[in-house]
Specification:
The protein is 77% helix and 0% strand. The longest helix has 33 residues. By secondary structure, the chain is mostly helical.
Length: 205
């Protein structure tokens, strides 16, 4: 089972990198192939929905444990934003609320792939939560090459969220935390730093 899980992680990780750097431009439907393969592994391993992070289990404890660090980081970023004038012409509109909703949905999809697949499979490979969490975070960071903002954020933030997932098994709090921090980073940091949070060849466009 450990060997099979390692092979699955390698296949999906390499496939995602190929898609980011090449196939999204020449074979965009390859993303569907990867997603089908990823979901198929859930049936092969007979994963329960609760182990994948769906349901109400662990929701409140995970929210409580993430509330303080997410709130403090968000407050720090807001203070920096005010100090640098990032909020000088910013107003809350319905379009921005809708945009945040779409970004939250994207974060939830990312956490689904990161936690339900990579973290779970790496737990089967390494058995140790810490090793699995760091390995999954490293893979997540590599997916964000060459973005100098997202790479360290996804490595460190990914590790924290991975540990929370391993303990509480709920995706929603992780997606909320990622969406809040990611939105603030995109808002307060110069676009020249993060290039619209793009990765791969899109970072240079």
């Amino acid at each position: 089972m450990r060997v099979g899980a390692a092979v699955e992680v390698t296949v999906v990780a390499v496939g995602i990198m190929w898609y980011i750097w090449r196939w999204q431009y020449v074979y965009p439907n390859f993303a569907v192939v990867l997603l089908v393969f990823l979901i198929a592994t859930f049936f092969w391993h007979r994963d329960r929905l609760s182990s994948l992070g769906f349901g109400s289990q662990g929701l409140l404890p995970a929210l409580k444990i993430l509330a303080a660090p997410t709130g403090m980081l968000a407050a720090f970023l807001v203070i920096v934003g005010w100090g640098t004038g990032a909020f000088a012409h910013w107003t809350w509109t319905l379009d921005k609320a809708t945009g945040f909703g779409r970004y939250f949905a994207f974060c939830l999809f990312q956490e689904f792939g990161l936690q339900s697949f990579f973290t779970n499979r790496l737990l089967a490979v390494f058995k140790r939560p810490g090793t699995a969490a760091w390995s999954s975070a490293l893979i997540f960071a590599v997916f964000h090459v060459p973005n100098p903002v997202l790479m360290p954020v996804t490595l460190l933030g990914g590790y924290v969220l991975n540990r929370v997932f391993i303990r509480y098994r709920n995706l929603l709090p992780l997606a909320f935390s990622q969406a809040i921090v990611g939105s603030l980073l995109a808002l307060i940091l110069p676009a020249g730093w993060h290039h619209g949070l793009r990765v791969g060849p899109g970072y240079y466009r």
